[in-house]
TrEMBL record:
EC annotation from Swiss-Prot or TrEMBL: 3.1.3.16
Protein name: Serine/threonine-protein phosphatase 5
Main location: cytoplasm
Organism name: Urochloa decumbens
Cofactors: Mn(2+)
InterPro entries per the UniProt record, alphabetical: Calcineurin-like_PHP (IPR004843), Metallo-depent_PP-like (IPR029052), PP5_C (IPR041753), PPP_dom (IPR013235), PPP_phosphatase (IPR051134), Ser/Thr-sp_prot-phosphatase (IPR006186), TPR-like_helical_dom_sf (IPR011990), TPR_rpt (IPR019734)
Length: 483
């Protein structure tokens, strides 16, 4: 309701101050709740809406951020922070042209603000770059696969190279262990071996369906991990806690291996190397960050270019297009990065038949698998991210019944405890990047299943120290400015 008493106005202001404190302490969900209470008491204050938009941005809820910032602008068309917050959310979504319009508006309102001028210039440069790339890009039909143009055998390894080597065609456990140690010391392996790992992985992924069935024998166990987002030292900690991948200790990493964290090259080469070593014990699913548009914004592309060179940018993009979209473990547990669908009646056979070798589309089954989120209320609602949708417990229940399944495991969202159980125990979110982006203070988690019961055993863990390289260190400068 609109504020109509001085008492409501004062209470709302007190709540805003509490929300600001929660925001400063990186308690963004709590800040959103407090700003929401302030808005209930006084919905005509543009500052509350713009502040809540900023908190939504911190939780990667860019769709909600755009809505709140738009409301702030409607209340006060001269409020520069409304345009600023909306522009930052559009930037994070990769909607550069919309962002540019908002920053132009900020500059118009604050012509002498050097910060507004600087950010407008960065945004203009980004839009020009994207327009140029679109102009020179070739259609999928004309594009020759980069993987087909590379023969790693002819790449010479210089005598002075002191790192681990692969003799012949087979990647060995000794090589992988030596590689992990090199990465811990912030050294890289020779490009020849990086090519060998990625090309071999790509070959394996191409032979897999879009929906993979995993069989765990009775008495055997299986571990599912969520997003690791370039946090290499936390990935190594998972292996120290739960054992290295092996035929007896299989893993599924459920997407978002890269971006945000600044050790994404080390993470992806580690996961790919284990895929080469144990094709039937290392399963990898695509996340929404295994895509060119996300990698361009959130650091992976810049990191690959810096550590391995330009050709690897395209090679990883090709490999990501072959990653499976979902897994079913022992015909009971459905594992997917994002979530469920905008329509009822989707069968596993529909997922199996998706032609996945493409960049993720902006709608349809593949988009929803990678981007959707659960919601507490029944039915379906708009996505807080601005992509795909939110789905309720009734949608989860129907999908499980239609496909004779027991449980959905998904990732895609940071959780304070590293996991969250929702929808009457039928859906678990697991997130494996503790203290996400060095600021969220969350735990990480993984889930162990033992056959035949396949009951989830959730293990949580805290972040471990890493070298002093900040998250998003390789991201485009224009986006780092808004973090």
């Amino acid at each position: 309701m609109d504020a109509n008493t001085n008492s409501d106005v004062q209470k709302a202001e007190d709540l805003k101050l509490k929300a600001n404190e929660a925001f400063k302490a990186n308690k963004f969900s709590q800040a959103i709740e407090l700003y929401s209470q302030a808005i209930e008491l006084n919905s005509s204050n543009a500052v509350y809406w713009a502040n809540r938009a900023f908190a939504h941005t911190k939780l990667e809820e860019y769709g909600s951020a755009v809505q709140d910032a738009t409301k702030a602008i409607e209340i006060d068309p001269r409020y520069s922070k409304g345009y600023y917050r909306r522009g930052a959310a559009y930037l994070a979504m990769g909607k550069f042209k919309e962002a540019l319009k908002d920053f132009q508006q900020v500059k118009k309102i604050c012509p002498n603000d050097p910060d507004a001028t600087r950010k407008l210039k960065e945004c203009e440069k980004a839009v020009q770059k994207i327009r140029f790339e679109e102009a020179i890009s070739v259609g999928d039909a004309e594009r020759r696969l980069v993987a087909d143009s590379i023969d790693y055998h002819i790449i010479e390894v210089e005598p002075q190279y002191a790192g681990p080597r692969i003799d012949g065609e087979e990647i060995t456990l000794d090589f992988v262990k030596a590689m992990l140690d090199e990465f811990k010391k912030q050294k890289c392996i020779h490009k020849r071996y990086a090519y060998q790992i990625v090309l071999k992985t790509l070959e394996l992924l191409r032979s897999m369906p879009s929906l993979v069935d995993v069989d765990v024998p009775n008495g055997g166990h299986f571990t599912v991990c969520g997003d690791v987002h370039g946090q290499y030292y936390d990935l190594i900690n998972i292996f120290e806690l739960n054992g290295l991948p092996s035929e007896e200790n299989p893993y599924l990493f459920n997407g978002d291996f890269v971006d945000r964290g600044s050790f994404s090259v080390e993470v992806i080469l580690t996961l790919f190397a284990f895929k080469c070593l144990y094709p039937k014990a290392m399963y990898l699913a695509r996340g929404n960050h295994e895509s060119k548009s996300m990698n361009k914004i959130y650091g992976f592309e810049g990191e690959v270019r810096s550590k391995l060179g330009e050709k690897f940018v395209e090679l990883f993009a090709e490999a990501f297009c072959w990653l499976p979209l979902a897994h079913v473990i022992n015909k009971k547990v459905f594992v997917v990065h994002g979530g469920l669908f905008s329509v009822d009646g989707v069968k596993l056979s529909d997922i199996r038949s998706i032609d996945r070798f493409c960049e993720p589309p902006e709608e349809g089954l593949m988009c929803e698998l990678l981007w959707s989120d659960p919601q507490p209320q029944p039915g379906r609602g708009p996505s807080k991210r601005g992509v795909a949708l939110s789905f309720g417990g009734d949608v989860t229940k129907k999908f499980l019944e239609d496909n004779n399944l027991d449980l959905i495991v998904r990732s895609h969202e940071v959780k304070d405890e590293g996991y969250e159980i929702e929808h009457d125990g039928k859906l678990i979110t697991v997130f494996s990047a503790p203290n996400y982006c060095d600021q969220m203070g969350n735990k990480g988690a993984f889930i162990r299943f033992t056959a035949p019961e396949m009951k989830p055993d959730i293990v949580t863990f805290s972040a471990v120290p890493h070298p002093d390289v900040k998250p998003m260190a390789y991201a485009n400068n224009f986006l780092r400015m808004f973090q």
